[in-house]
Fold this protein.
Amino acid sequence: MKICVFSPGIYTYGAMVIGGIIREAGYEVAITKNIAEIAGNFIFISLYSTQQLLSPGIKTVIRNLKDSGSTVIIGGAVSADPEMVLGELEPDLVVTGEGEVTVLKILHGDEWDSIPNCVYRDDDKIVKTKKERVAEISRPLPLIPDDIGNQNIRGAQTYIETHRGCFGRCSFCQVPLIFGRRIRSRKLEEILQEAELFHQKGVRRVALIGGTGSLYLSKGEVLNEDAFIGLIKGLSEIFGQKNVSCPDIRADCITDKILDAVRNYSVGWIFFGIESGSPRVLDLMQKGIYPDSIRQAVERCREHGVRVAGSFITGYPGETWEDHELTKDLIEEIAPDDLFISSAEPIPSTPLADLVLKTPDSDNPAFIPHVGEYKPLHLTEAEARAFDMMLHADNCRMIPRLTTEELYQTYLKEARTQGEDIRRATHLLQKYHH
């Protein structure tokens, strides 16, 4: 029996983990990111974006694989909305949540209705089995492709999972939904053994995943500083001091010791999800961190020689232009070293997705035509706010950047692309949940 793990475009960490579990069980398994190389009796497909559900290429290859007798199974972040996956791509089976409790039972031939985390069609009805999470995150080494060193994901060749779960309740985030709010951490020796293998395969730089990086081995909101320091110090000894990144740390999950470790054993950056400068919008987002805390966290980072990048979300349902201006004011005040700006994307099964479904298009900034300063550009309100914030941010960075005509056009294209993607995602939600 031949098995293939397909991860379109990039090798996702989850795809490599599943491949490793299958290989360790004695099966013949290959991993690929190229559609043309897919072949096998069982095809496991890892998808991380709602936009991939709309890919004609993926739809066609699934249909052809099923016609040839392969069993097609889809997992990854998109599995949070299995009805949508079944409806758009028509695989044989969707594996939701944590796939390691499921994949070997499928290959062993167990009846699907007895396997946890499965969703599939049985004639005209959709069958969902019980949900189950692993008690302890311990598994075989991942199946790492020989060309892993050629890929680039936000400056790293791959991510490495350190823990699962986050105590936060951010309305736009899938992490608590998929992995829960309790922190489950991997053993340090297993993480470092895996890191050594990635390094041997040609990985030069890694980034950590697991929600908020500094929650490694924490007890809820009580941080384990020494565990986090040992983690990134151990990784830096393998990859080099400036080749480890620990992005996506909450501003309320830093301490002096953690900041010193970030400076000493990583690329020296922290990426805060700031999202908005409006307390009202932050309440809508259930963020739990307000501008005063952000100001204090940024100042604290700079006292420790750590550079700060901030991510900001605009066009959130219910946000006004006045809220948008408050965010611009905060950006100007804290002057981040770098910024990531995006329109609010309704990721399936999040509270934001529920809010978007309850919001008429006529009240949703992603659909409302902009009639202000950027009216000649024919943007929606969300696109106009994203574009405006991108332009504003260039002048507010710690080192200001001149907005050239080329950058202007790049930002305009990015705002329009985000807008189109969000409308497509919204239409999918409406198709399956209205």
